[in-house]
Specification:
There is one protein chain. The protein is α/β, with parallel strands linked by helices. The chain is built from 16 helices and 23 strands. The chain has three domains: 40-107 and 283-380 and 552-583, FAD/NAD(P)-binding domain (3-Layer(bba) Sandwich), CATH 3.50.50.60; 112-275, no CATH class; 381-548, Succinate dehydrogenase/fumarate reductase flavoprotein, catalytic domain (Flavocytochrome C3, Chain A, domain 1, Alpha-Beta Complex), CATH 3.90.700. Helix 1 runs parallel beside helix 16 and helix 3 (153-173) crosses helix 16. This is FAD binding domain-containing protein.
Length: 617
């Protein structure tokens, strides 16, 4: 099947990796952990660990170790925490339950939403702390879905103040950044929003061959080729038949050839983000154990976290880790836990996740077992996906925004502006009960733009049709019958849509009116780069389901990333960051990098707080 599989393209735009949930020897058959989690205290384990941790995980049946800080997880947030802890003079130990490091970071676009990041750009875009805070309040607090507990004013302020410091710290360690040119905020018209971009940054091209040879094979990768394209270049690639698209493809191709001619393995996006922080950890001798799972958190008689019990080899080899300063949970969320999704995401009707296979909620469950509160457990970093008969999801961003396309429900009616940001789209999909929804494009669209990873051209391959990914018909009525859509409803909706498209104004939902919509448009199409009639046969359709880039709910934390109980009291010695914590972004998505930006920032914040003298905490 001639499907373009840009595995390392931005998760938001050139998204159609078909990430496979490969069976792994460590993976549970169900639930979120391999052994029953239970409360443990140091009274139940050997109280005097005498062995410092080796560079690799222990192989003997029982061992006890003492470290300053245990970091659970190995994505970019986890390795930012360990790197900062090391820089502050502490000795961290990183444990990763799978055989590969990097987690969902390696699948991601690698972007970070960091207002006032300090990363230089050729374009001067005005921004300041107050403007960014105004925007966060407008989106998170004043919308229809406020989330006060995970997104307190103190947490917003901490994120905005410490984010630029985190960026500067990583740069001081050798990290190289670039501004994502032109990428607007996701609600640019709201107070404080930036329509011209400037708040999203991403890593520059990184050579994976800089990693020691023994680590190159331990980095999680997608299933296709790693194409070193930046997130802000992806739109042109999607419009590959335009002049800008062809020039961008030539530029990316030259980047590949030039780097490989020098014996390099160039990567961008999440692979570059993770590759850089992994390199810095390895260079500093920070121990990173793979194939090691968190079993439980150890507490003293006051409920303070003083260590953890970990295991490897399917629970056969146990080690007790005593922590002098704390435990940082940075192991992602529970996107791959069938039992936790069934409990918390009933409203979604099931989700097709693009998170890494190890995203099974172990860290969150361990924290809950000792009394940690959780928030946003019914939320995720939602986005629309198309799914073939094998159940493999492919992310959908540009298809929703480009001309000659429309999305309808089973009655054939539109229910939202198709071009809105991906999390908002799924919220609207849930609200309308449009699961699945149906993307419909005509032959004009098919001739110009990528569709579900299929390069533009005449029609689609037989393989795409046989897989069930795409359905083709010579008329809208035939297409409606094939998809199970109300025929008259679809024809009536398309008739009105085409009239609005000819005028260039979406009178129903405002498609193309936002700077965000226009970023994903075809700038050569007139009068509205997001709108075009769906009129030229044959027609093509795909079922659109709620998917996600990971879950958004987790341990409730304060502005120092400390875990909290339901009554608001701190669980001393326990910190949670990234998708192991409830997001400061609440139920919304503020801009490209809203997952990784807070993830790395609160990892940096947690490390700083851990390093404080006890009297100052």
């Amino acid at each position: 099947m001639d499907i373009l599989r840009p595995t390392s393209f931005p998760r938001l735009v050139l998204s159609f990796h078909r990430w496979r949930n490969r069976p792994q020897p460590w993976a549970p058959s169900s639930g979120c952990g391999r052994l029953p989690l239970q409360l443990r205290s140091l009274a139940t384990v050997t109280p005097e660990p005498t062995t410092t941790p080796p560079a690799s995980a222990p192989t003997t049946p029982v061992q006890n170790y003492a470290v300053d800080v245990l970091v659970v997880g190995s994505g970019a947030a986890a390795l930012t925490a360990s790197l900062r802890l090391h820089a502050l003079g502490l000795k961290p130990l990183v444990v990763e339950k799978t055989s590969l490091v990097g987690g969902t970071t390696c699948y991601s676009g690698g972007a970070l939403w960091i207002p006032n990041s300090g990363v230089r750009s050729s374009t001067i875009i005005p921004d300041d702390f107050d403007r960014a805070l105004t925007y966060m309040k407008a989106v998170i607090d004043d919308g229809e879905r406020p989330a006060t507990r995970p997104s307190t004013l103190a947490r917003k302020v901490a994120f905005l103040k410490e984010g630029p410091k985190m960026v500067k710290f990583l740069a001081s360690q050798g990290f190289r950044w670039i501004r994502s040119t032109g990428y607007p905020d996701y609600y640019p018209e709201l107070p404080g929003g930036n329509a011209g971009g400037g708040r999203t940054i991403e890593p520059v091209v990184f050579d994976l061959n800089r990693l020691p040879r023994e680590w190159r094979g331990k980095v999680r990768k997608g299933t296709g080729p790693n194409v070193p394209v930046y997130g802000f270049e992806a739109g042109n690639v999607y419009r590959m038949r335009s002049l800008d698209g062809m020039l961008t493809l030539l530029k990316v191709g030259g980047r590949v050839l030039g780097q490989r001619a020098l014996g390099r393995q160039p990567v961008t996006l999440g692979m570059s983000l993770f590759g850089q922080v992994l390199l810095f950890n390895v260079q500093r001798g920070i121990p990173i154990w793979t194939g090691v799972a968190l079993e439980s958190l150890n507490i003293d008689d006051r409920g303070n976290v003083v260590g953890a019990t970990i295991s490897r080899d399917d629970g056969k080899n146990i080690a007790n880790i005593q922590t002098r300063k704390g435990v940082v949970l940075a192991a992602g969320g529970f996107a791959r836990s069938a039992s936790m999704r069934a409990e918390h995401h009933l409203a979604s009707g099931g989700s097709h996740s693009l998170a890494s296979p190890g995203d099974t909620g172990d860290a969150i469950t361990a924290a809950v077992q000792i009394g940690a509160a959780t928030e946003l457990m019914d939320e995720a970093w939602w986005g629309a996906v198309v799914v073939d008969r094998a159940g493999e999801p492919a992310w959908m961003q540009y298809e929703r925004a480009l001309p000659h396309s429309i999305i309808v429900d089973k009655q054939g009616k539109r229910f939202t502006n198709e071009a809105v940001n991906y999390t908002r789209f799924v919220h609207e999909q849930f609200r309308a009960g449009a699961v699945p929804a149906y993307l419909i494009v005509d032959s004009k669209n098919r001739g110009k733009y990528i569709l579900a990873g299929i390069p533009p051209g005449r029609g689609v391959s037989q393989g795409a049709l046989e897989s069930g990914l795409i359905v083709k018909a010579d008329s809208l009525r035939e297409l409606a019958v094939a998809m199970g859509i109300d025929e008259m409803g679809l024809e009536e909706t398309v008739r009105r849509f085409n009239q609005m498209a000819e005028k260039g104004v979406d009178e129903d939902f405002g498609r193309g009116s936002s700077s965000y919509d226009k970023f994903f448009a075809d700038p050569k199409h007139r009068p509205n780069g997001n709108l075009g009639p769906v009129s030229r046969p044959p027609f093509y359709a795909a079922r659109v389901y709620p998917g996600d880039l990971g879950t958004k709910g987790g341990v409730l934390t304060d502005e120092h990333a400390r875990a909290l109980r339901d009554d608001g009291n701190v669980i001393s010695g326990l910190y949670a960051v990234g998708n192991s914590s409830a997001s400061v972004m609440g139920k919304e998505y503020l801009g490209a990098g809203s997952t990784l930006g807070p993830g790395l920032t609160f990892a940096y914040i947690a490390a700083n707080h851990i390093a404080l003298p006890s009297a100052e905490k």
